[in-house]
Design goal:
The complex is a heterodimer. Chain A has a single domain (11-175), classed as Orthogonal Bundle (MetI-like fold), CATH 1.10.3720. Chain A contains 10 helices and no strands. Chain A has helices spanning 5-35, 41-53, 56-67, 72-81, 89-114, 117-125, 130-159, 162-168, 178-187, 191-214. In chain A, helix 3 packs parallel to helix 8 (162-168), helix 7 packs antiparallel against helix 10 (191-214) and helix 9 (178-187) packs antiparallel against helix 10 (191-214). The longest helix of chain A has 31 residues, at 5-35. Chain B is of the alpha/beta class. Chain B contains 10 helices and 10 strands. In chain B, strands 2-1-3-10-4 form a 5-stranded mixed sheet. In chain B, helix 2 runs antiparallel to helix 10 (237-245) and helix 3 (61-69) runs parallel beside helix 4 (82-90). The radius of gyration of chain B is 21 Å and the shape is globular. Chain B starts with a helix and ends in a 6-residue tail after the last helix. Classes of the chains: A mainly alpha, B alpha/beta. At the A-B interface, helix 9 of A face helix 3 and strand 7 of B. Chain A: GO terms for molecular function: molybdate ion transmembrane transporter activity. Chain A: Its main location: membrane.
């Protein structure tokens, strides 16, 4: 049973990093798509949402083809930096980031679109720079929506299995996440371990979803 | 009226499902290493027994055992090692008298085809040049168990286990090596032969126990009688010829 904590800690680490990366990427992309007016905006939005609807094994295969030792990006990394991404915790983080990315950027885009441009315009008449407007006006008004998206992304990254198994494999302590550990425990007939891991995962996911529910925009605390 | 198309669709679906369940199906659960051989043997069996459709189910032997133990409707179980079949016997899923060994195999170490690091002995794998080694998960994959027993016998398991990339079946280990994502892997000689152009066999590894594949019909299966016929068929010349073609040895 004590070994069961290793996948839990590793999964939290992978999901944590994936969510942090998505905070930056998702917010930036969400803002660009909310405010930007350029041709092909909707096509780009749809393309960036693909990881949400694509089967994880398909995504895993694409990743393998790109970052694998014989892949476009992977071969370059191996040749110039000696970096092999497959079967590393970094690959697990990359897979988790990509599958959870649409959850963040879509929530961020929706949150930014609810921010009334008049507030930003008012700030501009007062003479503050664009970056300051973003951090002091726009973001404070949009943060709840973004946070809800981030919590869902965290839960998604926590449960990522198909793509992770393909590019990160199963190495105890390095890439064997909770979902992979459950899969292997069931395969090996270790039902006790499987039960324990499943309960732990369920409790964590439930907590995350409850947290996200409280942050949906519009839920104002009782005055 | 939206209800009418839904009812028509429901009617078609139920009709389709009932048709699928009526054919005389034989479900064969076989170890992953038998994939190619059994795919060739199935049509031969169907030709000899018209009206029977063979459904093949491949996975690591341990996984197949779990499926059967939890009630999966299989009629035949072909395992890659005696341990898994012993467990099946202990759980009364097969009858000892009906269990027979039908092929043998050997364990090899393979490296990616383009690799310049080729071990001359198993002990070479402890060198830093071999950072990742694909080994089947010993808890559920026979090839992993054979590998672990060899390495433990040579007192190398402690040094090699940290480098192990777990594979859920022998074909996954083969895939890792042919993609050059690992530096070496332990598979059966029959699997290595399938990808002779993408992997190189570095060594053949003698195992403490010979690698013998047992097969048995499953009395609890839906088509148990046909299951027994399939097991007998495996010992006939046409089936044995197919197995030899893929490199399996006589039991």
């Amino acid at each position: 049973m004590a070994d069961a904590w290793i996948p839990l800690v590793l999964t939290l680490k992978v999901a944590g990093w994936a969510t942090a990366l998505n905070l930056l990427l998702g917010t930036a992309v969400g803002y660009a798509l909310a405010r930007g007016r350029f041709p092909g905006r909707d096509v780009l939005d749809a393309a960036l949402t693909l990881p949400l609807v694509m089967p994880p094994t398909v995504l895993g295969y694409y990743l393998l083809v790109v970052i694998g030792s014989q892949g476009v990006l992977g071969a370059w990394l191996l040749q110039h930096f000696g970096i092999r991404l497959i079967f590393t915790v970094e690959a697990a983080i990359i897979a988790a980031t990509i599958v959870a990315f649409p959850l963040v950027f879509k929530a961020a885009r929706a949150a930014f679109e609810t921010v009334d441009p008049q507030f930003e315009d008012a700030a501009r008449t007062l003479g503050i720079g664009e970056w300051a407007i973003f951090f002091r006006v726009t973001l404070p008004l949009a943060w709840r929506g973004i946070l809800a998206g981030l919590l869902l992304a965290f839960a998604r990254a926590l449960g990522e299995f198909g793509a992770t198994l393909m590019v990160a494999g199963s190495i105890v302590g390095k890439t064997q996440t909770l979902s992979i550990a459950v899969y292997e425990a069931v395969q090996a007939g270790q039902d006790g371990t499987a039960n324990f891991l499943v309960v732990v995962t369920s409790v964590v996911c439930l907590a995350v979803l409850l947290g996200a529910g409280r942050l949906v925009p519009g839920r104002v605390a009782a005055r | 009226m939206p209800l009418r198309p839904i009812r028509t669709l429901a009617l078609f679906l139920t009709a389709g499902l009932s048709v699928a369940a009526q054919a005389a199906d034989l479900t064969v659960s076989a170890a992953a290493s038998l994939t190619n051989a059994f795919k060739d043997i199935a049509p031969l069996f169907e030709a000899a027994h018209p009206g029977t459709k063979v459904q093949l189910n491949f996975a690591a032997s341990g996984v197949l055992l779990q499926q059967i133990a939890k009630g999966a409707p299989a009629d035949v179980f072909a395992s890659a090692d005696q341990d898994t079949m012993d467990q099946a016997q202990a759980q009364n899923l097969v009858k000892p008298a009906q269990r027979r060994d039908f092929v043998s195999n050997s364990l090899v170490v393979i490296v990616p085809g383009a690799s310049t690091k080729v071990p001359a002995a198993v002990a070479d794998l402890t060198q830093p040049a071999y950072g990742r080694i694909a080994i089947g998960l010993p808890a559920s994959v026979p090839v992993g168990r054979y590998t672990k027993s060899v390495l433990e016998g040579a007192k190398l398991w402690g040094a090699i286990e940290p480098k192990m990339v777990g594979a859920t079946n022998v074909r996954q280990a083969l895939d890792y090596v042919q993609r050059a994502e690992v530096d070496a892997g332990f598979v059966y000689s029959t699997d290595a032969a399938l990808m002779a152009d993408k992997v190189k066999v570095a060594l053949t590894v003698p195992t403490p126990k010979p690698i013998l594949y047992p097969v048995a019909p499953l009395p609890a299966g839906p088509n148990a009688a046909m299951g027994e016929k399939f097991v007998e068929f495996l010992f006939t010349p046409p089936a044995q010829a197919v197995l030899s073609k893929y490199g399996f040895g006589k039991p």
